[in-house]
Amino acid sequence: MERIAFVGLGNMGAPMAKNLLSAGLSVNVFDLVSELARPLAEFGANVCETIEMAVADVDVVITMLPAGKHVKAVYLGDETSKGVFSLLKKNSLVIDSSTIDPESARIVGEVAHEKGIQFVDAPVSGGVAGAAAGTLTFIVGGHEGAFSQAEKILSHMGKNIFHAGGVGSGQMGKICNNLMLGILMSGTCEALTLGVNNGLDPKVLSNIMLQSSGRNWALELYNPCPGVMENAPASNDYKPGFMSKLMLKDLGLGLEAAAQSQSAVPMGSLARNLFALHAMAGNDELDFSSLFEFYQKSEL
Ligand code: NAD
């Protein structure tokens, strides 16, 4: 049986690792914050004190880290470590499911290639609920052989697995998706606030828009107005979920990609600025749907 190391056990990584364990796979787990790793022991994980212990003798490494700089430091090394690539066997498979800039994914992929290691970038969509239910969408970049190896493992954590192209294309697909999500969440907050300010019940208004042309993912599965949807972060003090600072990062990645390709992204730019103002006001660690409060507070 393949041995897997799972690194990064935050809001997404922990439920994803649990699904691998439920499928009966052998999983070593590591997070810089050891309190996040320890609870996985009761699901059968081998909890490791260091990343070196986690990746020793494994066939597959999966990372779920915040941003490109963390992914590069983990695989390529930094002033404190030699990097995971120097510890892996040839032909090991590396799956990075973090959302990062495509350039960092390509740099990591090139070093993997030089070392005879298979690498795919495989960012996800579906949020914490999708991670817990094992219904994530994976958007994978890498060559065909690496993709088919990765697909078997990803199928324990996700429902839809897309091959977007070569290394880095998974990230590009994900960045486009989250540009759209940032815009949709902003628009949903805006429309709900407008309705409430004009006397409508947010539950009734949400139901109306769900059966009308304003229907979208944020409204359907992640309603940002407290009390409308019992299981959404909005009804749980905006506990993440998907932190505002991560949405801000993703919209920044969208703007960088737009600058490089001379694409016009006026709506994405506006959404990024809204999330920047919201994060700067001290909401960076709240769920991104807390942007709803930005609209509340901006009432005159
Ligand atoms: P998170 O901050 O909750 O988790 C990241 C984890 O990585 C933390 O526990 C942190 O301690 C750990 N970490 C950082 N550096 C490390 C290192 N060097 N070694 C080991 N562990 C390290 O973030 P999250 O919400 O789980 O998101 C992870 C990634 O997935 C991000 O790139 C995010 O953009 C993306 N994503 C998140 C969601 C979501 O709904 N939360 C959805 C889709 C994609």
Automatic annotation (TrEMBL):
Statement: the UniProt record of this protein carries the keyword Oxidoreductase: yes
Write down the top EC class of this protein: oxidoreductase
Name assigned to this protein: 3-hydroxyisobutyrate dehydrogenase
Known Pfam families for this protein? NAD_binding_11, NAD_binding_2
Keyword Oxidoreductase included in the entry's annotation: yes
User: Might you give the EC number(s) for this enzyme?
Assistant: 1.1.1.31
Per the record, the GO terms for biological process are: L-valine catabolic process
For this chain, the family text in UniProt reads:
Belongs to the HIBADH-related family.
The alphabetical list of record keywords is: Branched-chain amino acid catabolism, NAD, Oxidoreductase
Q: Which GO terms describe its molecular function?
A: 3-hydroxyisobutyrate dehydrogenase activity; NAD binding; NADP binding
Matching NCBIfam families: HIBADH (TIGR01692)
Metabolic or biological pathway: Amino-acid degradation; L-valine degradation
Which residues are named in the active-site annotation?
Answer: K174
Q: Which organism is it from?
A: Vibrio caribbeanicus ATCC BAA-2122
Pinpoint the 6-phosphogluconate dehydrogenase NADP-binding domain residues.
3-165
Could you tell me what reaction this enzyme catalyses?
3-hydroxy-2-methylpropanoate + NAD(+) = 2-methyl-3-oxopropanoate + NADH + H(+)
Residue ranges occupied by any 3-hydroxyisobutyrate dehydrogenase-like NAD-binding domain in the UniProt entry = 168-294
